[in-house]
Specification:
The structure holds two protein chains of two kinds. By secondary structure, chain A is mainly α. Chain A has three domains: 3-61, no CATH class; 72-138, no CATH class; 155-283, no CATH class. Chain A has 13 helices and no strands. In chain A, helix 9 packs antiparallel against helix 11 and helix 11 (195-222) packs antiparallel against helix 12 (227-250). Chain A is elongated, with a radius of gyration of 33 Å. By secondary structure, chain B is mainly alpha-helical. The chains are: A mainly alpha, B mainly alpha.
Chain lengths: 296, 120
């Protein structure tokens, strides 16, 4: 390809990225400028000149004001939310009982999940536009109320939780007698514990649950989280998760199969939520606050 | 290290590209002529950066342009608009202020460096 053809091809590639109203004018100017450059460097060096000029799309972009869809400040958050959302949908889809084949997973979850990053793009782009349009609204503002002390314990809330957990533990221990009381003996053996479970696992689980109740009582009385209380909370959480996992895999919990399957499903969910909660607490533990120097 | 220097030096140069360009447009100049003038003054700017920049400045009202065919082939000539002249004067003041500040800071830095050497 000779120099003129190369220049024509390059200019065509640049101007196709520009608004139609600009194309003819920019093409004419670029042609005259490149002719001057070629006259200086020699027509044999046309290819090097054009490569050095830049990728046509980039050169065309420089003709207009910079366009940003997602603010650079939001890019990391966008990527993190996209990856987490996709992972949750894909893993959830893979674990769903309806997903029998790879094809079902691919069609109903893998491809459909791409709607999530698409929705995020729209959300972040709208936010970026609003920020540019009304910059004063995006300016940082101090909170109306001072930040909540993360170590303070809401005594009313935790007391309510304690009452709920005591009632729950009582219900679990005396499940069948309570059911008999409610139904007048109309559901015999539905919530009777398996003998092996009651002998091997239940004592450990009950001990840990009662210990946890005592821990909650201490927490309510103290009124503040301390590093030691947080460590005990994490250790108790892990221990309860461990024993619950043991109960799930060791054999039946209840003698009746429907009750057994239901309680195992609920237990799996509790273990997962507890582990996620522990991981979040570990990642968000307020390490920096103690080291940030305070102005006098 | 060399890579970091190249990137940081590029950022420094980017900061002065507009002012350098405006400084050469008190008279009508076309793109290639302007680039040559900047090169001769020690401020080479890539073609792919300079030529689109002229259009952007024109769209912002800083430059005006016209097609001329004085020496045969048609060329687009640019010069500062009235608004561009005012902007240039303000940017020049800012640049001189920045330059003085930087000289001052660099002098303090040099002094601290020498003090540190003497202390050792």
């Amino acid at each position: 390809m000779d120099a003129d053809a190369l220049v024509d091809s390059y200019i065509a590639d640049v101007v196709k990225h520009l608004p139609r109203s600009q194309r003819a004018d920019v093409a004419a100017e670029l042609r005259s400028l490149l002719a001057d450059e070629l006259a200086e460097r020699g027509r044999d060096n046309a290819r090097d000149l054009l490569v050095g000029f830049g990728r046509p799309a980039e050169v065309a972009a420089r003709y207009g004001p910079p366009l940003t869809v997602i603010d650079p400040a939001d890019s990391r958050r966008f990527i993190r939310l996209s990856v987490i959302g996709l992972a949750v949908i894909w893993i959830g889809g893979a674990l769903s009982p309806d997903t029998d084949t790879f094809r079902i997973w691919w069609e109903e979850y893998a491809v459909a999940a791409l709607v999530w990053p698409g929705a995020l793009v729209i959300g972040f782009a709208t936010t970026a536009w609003v920020r540019r349009r009304w910059p004063h609204r995006a300016a940082w503002k101090p909170p109306r109320r001072p930040p909540r002390d993360p170590d303070r314990v809401n005594r009313v809330g935790w007391s309510a939780a304690l009452v709920f957990f005591v009632a729950g533990t009582f219900t679990l221990v005396f499940a069948q007698p309570l059911l008999d009381l409610v139904t007048g003996g109309g559901a015999p053996g539905v919530l009777t514990y398996d003998e092996t479970f009651a002998r091997r696992i239940a004592p450990w689980l009950l001990t840990l649950m009662v210990t946890h109740l005592v821990f909650l009582g201490v927490l309510v009385v103290k009124g503040r989280w301390t590093a030691r209380l947080r460590r005990i909370d994490a250790a108790l959480g892990l221990a309860i998760c461990g024993v619950m996992t043991w109960a799930i895999v060791a054999g039946p919990v209840y003698t009746a199969r429907p009750a057994d399957q239901t309680v195992k499903g609920i237990s799996t969910l509790i273990v997962l939520v507890t582990l996620v909660d522990l991981a979040v607490k570990l990642l968000r533990r307020p390490r920096w606050r103690a080291t940030t120097p305070r102005t006098p | 290290m060399g890579d970091a220097f190249d990137k940081l030096e590029l950022e420094l140069r980017r900061g002065v590209v507009v002012l350098a360009t405006l400084s050469q447009l008190h008279t009508l100049r076309y793109g290639y002529e302007l680039r040559q003038s900047l090169v001769a003054g020690g401020m080479p700017i890539e073609e792919g950066t300079l030529y689109p920049l002229l259009r952007r400045l024109e769209a912002q009202g800083v430059l005006t342009s016209e097609w001329r065919t004085d020496e045969g082939s048609p060329r687009r000539y640019y010069t500062l608009s009235a608004e561009g002249r005012r902007l240039y004067a303000r940017l020049t003041d800012s640049w001189r202020g920045l330059n003085d500040t930087m000289n001052q800071l660099l002098k303090i830095g040099e002094r601290d460096k020498e003090g540190d050497h003497d202390g050792r």
